[in-house]
């Protein structure tokens, strides 16, 4: 009897330990986090001594996958606020002041949101950082909104993607998922 | 010893410079590394954009799950700390010696250097670390790991510029009965602040922060 109760306690202890650990250490996200820099690939360029322009911006975002779903006009409802990623709110950081749609945006960290429509998207730059998704979105903390045309492509992007590209006037933040691509111009 | 540590980045550079060049710098060329095994046949991806990493990135906050606390309006105070790191996995290997070697610096993750952002001043084992962004790397041995706070941010993890080291802190290495497939980092609150717990394979290391 004593032995059995010891065994029960031992097993309960093991289960307890396992549950505790399962709670403490996070599993790998289904929509993993990723980071994009401008200049493109800046961290690698840095260790290769190939930097030709100073660090300007980076975006930290989570990458949900299409997985056969109807995304725009389906999972991402037209006209509704969308967190532009998954999990933690998508963060953009500028390492020097920039201009977006004519407005000066100072150096610092910001949260990005979007409202997708069939032909245009509105990108929102908001100063409430370190939050989860769009669930506590406060429009009073908006810094700028910019409406951008939707470009459609035959190439399907499976994992939600954000990256910067150089343009004649500055850079674009490229946002791509499914067959849709949007480019937000940033002047620096 | 110090000489050989300094030699290591140089040797990596030499190795890299022998490989295919990065062209005009617009294509993503990732230096060879040991913490991540590339799959034999990568899944097909959209040709235009970077694929999803085999060692995915993750972040952890202190207070734990801060963004969710903020969403639930159960906190008004700003966060204390955030770590952004990549999560390599064992892929059938043992941490030592297959992936890491004793006394060789490790980027504490994969891909980009692991970043620690302190939103206010912190103290780690009596050393004051001012608010700011840092990279964290480590030098593991069998009994203890040395953690290095370094100011050379936004860099790839395979080279450390020791001239930008801010503080070096030694903590004991401990064993866990649970084997972690993916490298994991999380803040564990305690009476004085929080330990940054790092776990991979059966090794656990805790870096104690006071905020």
Question: What is the structure about, briefly put?
Answer:
The complex is a heterodimer of chains A (188) and B (211). Helices cover 15% and strands 43% of the residues of chain A. Chain A is α+β, with helices and mostly antiparallel strands and 188 residues long.
How are the elements arranged and paired?
The complex is a heterodimer of chains A (188) and B (211).
Chain A (H helix, E strand, L loop, with lengths): L1 H23 L8 E6 L3 H6 L9 E6 L18 E2 L7 E5 L3 E3 L2 E3 L2 E9 L3 E7 L15 E8 L1 E16 L4 E16 L2
Antiparallel strand pairs in A: 1-2, 2-4, 3-7, 4-7, 5-6, 7-8, 8-9, 10-11
Chain B lengths: L1 H17 L38 E6 L3 H6 L9 E6 L8 H5 L14 E5 L3 E3 L2 E3 L2 E9 L3 E7 L14 E25 L4 E17 L1
Antiparallel strand pairs in B: 1-2, 2-3, 3-6, 4-5, 4-9, 6-7, 7-8, 8-9
Features:
heterodimer; A: 188 residues; alpha+beta; seven-stranded antiparallel sheet; two-stranded antiparallel sheet; 2 helices; 11 strands; 15% helix; B: 211 residues; mainly beta; nine-stranded antiparallel sheet; 9 strands; globular; disordered N terminus
Please tell me what the overall shape of chain A is. globular
Radius of gyration computed on alpha carbons of chain A: 21 Å
Strand content of chain A: 35-45%
Poorly predicted runs of chain B: 1-32, 42-46
Counting helices, strands and paired strands, the structural category of chain B is mainly beta
Mean pLDDT of chain A: 90
Number of strands of chain A: 11
As a whole number of angstroms, the C-alpha radius of gyration of chain B is 18 Å
